[in-house]
Amino acid sequence: MIILGIDPGSITTGYAFLEKNGSSLKVLEYGTIHAPAANALEDRLLHIISRLEELLDRYRPHALSMEGVFFAKNAKSALVLGHIRGAILVACRKRGLSYNEYPPKVVKQAVTGNGAAAKEQVASMIFAQLGISGGDLPLDASDALAIAWTHANPSPLSIAITGTAANLKNGSKKSVSLTSRKKKATTRQWMDLIEKMGGTIQ
Fold it and tell me: Is 7 designated active site?
């Protein structure tokens, strides 16, 4: 299975293609797609998506993984980021990719064991996990690697999150019931993971 990890941005978008074969992972390519900040938004989107589509057609991935929660300085920034996320989703869904979202803290927890880790720590750990050198690429590229790696190595928390998201999209009461029973069976794991990520349990 080939997994595409994306760290979306309207100027710089990080991407990573990982090939999973059993328990082994191979890095096919990772990097960034950069659009000049001086260009209009629609031209930046066209540039990023056109380049991404070339990569999609070259590697033909099976799954897209992207951050499910994002923060912006203001409403305009959130809207711009929403545009690029939507364009990426359309390009990938046209090619039949499955889609999963992972909150930033889940990615950090999966890669480093610390949901509050700095981006630099995530980069260092993901390069060590994959046995590659980082080079001088921006952190957007290492973030994309980390997102793809999280999808390839799901933790109990990421499995529960993606399972719950799928249940909500499908509106399946039966699936929700099955997921609920699974949660009860791993309550201690949930509590440990949430506490490690700096969360509180009421």
Answer: yes
Edge-to-edge strand list for the sheet holding 24-34? 24-34, 12-21, 2-7, 63-67, 98-102
d(CA 37, CA 27): 29
Backbone φ/ψ region at 172: left (φ over 0), alpha (ψ -120 to 50), beta: beta
Per annotation, catalytic residue among 7, 29, 42, 54: 7
Sorted by where each starts, the structural domains of the chain and their CATH numbers stand as 2-154 (3.30.420.10), 155-202 (no CATH)
Higher per-residue confidence, 184 vs 138: 138
Average pLDDT over residues 56-71: 89
CA gap 146, 122 in Å, rounded: 7
CA distance 10 to 23: 34
Q: How far apart are CA 92 and CA 98, in angstroms?
A: 8
Helix (H) or strand (E) holding 108: helix 104-112
Determine the Cα–Cα distance for residues 157 and 137; give it in Å rounded to an integer: 29
Annotation says 140 is catalytic: yes
Find the catalytic residue in 140, 143, 192, 195: 140
pLDDT of residue 180: 37
